[in-house]
Amino acid sequence: MKTKIAVANGDGIGPEIMQAVLRVFEANNAPLEYEFVEMGKSYFDAGHSTGMTDAAKATIENLGLLFKGPMETPKGKGVKSINVTARKVWNTYANQRDFRTLNGVDTVFSKAGIPINLTIIRENIEDTYGGIEHLLTYDVAVGRRIITRPGSEQVIRYAFEMARRKGLKKLACGHKANIMKLTDGLFLEVFQQVAKEYAEIEATDIIVDDLCMKLVTRPETFEAIVLTNLQGDIVSDLCAGLVGGLGFAPSANIGDNISIFEAVHGTAPDIAGKGIANPTALLLSGISMLRFLGFSKNAADIENALLYTLEQGVHTGDFGDKAIPSSNTNAFTDAIIANL
Ligand code: NAD
Description:
The protein is α/β, with parallel strands linked by helices. 40% of the residues lie in helices and 19% in strands. Helix 8 runs parallel beside helix 9. The model has no long low-confidence stretch (mean pLDDT 95). The structure holds nicotinamide-adenine-dinucleotide. Residues 13, 17, 70-73, 83, 246-247, 262, 265-271, 277-278, 281, 318 line the site of nicotinamide-adenine-dinucleotide. The site of nicotinamide-adenine-dinucleotide has 21 residues, from loops.
């Protein structure tokens, strides 16, 4: 029995990496069926204010799961991000980003024999991402930061449950409650309250600037970190850098009714259309989606094939041993399929 999911190709390198990942799923006989939905920059441009058609919205709400490629958002002036809108509309309040050392993906830490395996849980719908901003005068812009007790509690509870499920020993809360005493103070207070229900997990808190310093000096000391939206966004890109870059950073936006799986990276306009993008981050997101759906064997088989391919030194141009010629997206995908 196949599970039907909604798929949005995305913009820029989106269609190239999505095609690569779906080819791997097909070769693995993953029990999935796809309904492709109309969503992305071109639908914004065509006048759909949320960046998707009504039919796409209905399909995603009906199926409850969206697998998406990256989507473009203009910087500065212009429309709201489709990605942020989608997370908000469907209340996908917990953004889980897993980072780990992959053999074959050299970093300063892997070369020093220091393995990294850490998860960032980022609050996904509150904070400054509400986009409540206005100009007070020509020279002064004001933005509002909203942190709520229920919003904090649902993501912090998710983080503790995830830590319990994975058998983790530690969960840290990153914050700036020394300066933003009411907003980050509330997030930290909720963290400390919820922590009492999870006595087996060591709950610590750390000021976000100190956290950044410790992540780049001793990343192996962290197992999981929960943060507010903006701080979580920035810290998770830092963590992507620790394990080889954005090409290796998967992401799951989890809600009670709808969840969205996507790569952390964006549309990579500088390499779009060249057929050289690294599909690994989207594939890792797809692997966690298969696990989420209960298809653990398919997930494990695809993961093993990917890891073995990386270990063999096969790589796209954004990483890997420069002495070994890089493969384009198709050849990299073929190598994974050959290892299934
Ligand atoms: P980006 O992540 O698209 O690119 C940053 C750098 O990383 C570029 O040099 C790019 O070539 C490289 N890169 C990213 N993914 C890669 C991959 N799979 N393989 C090889 N190289 C890769 O960030 P950006 O340039 O700041 O953003 C471009 C657009 O993407 C913007 O419109 C932004 O809003 C959007 N964006 C979307 C999402 C999303 O859909 N979730 C996330 C981030 C950014």
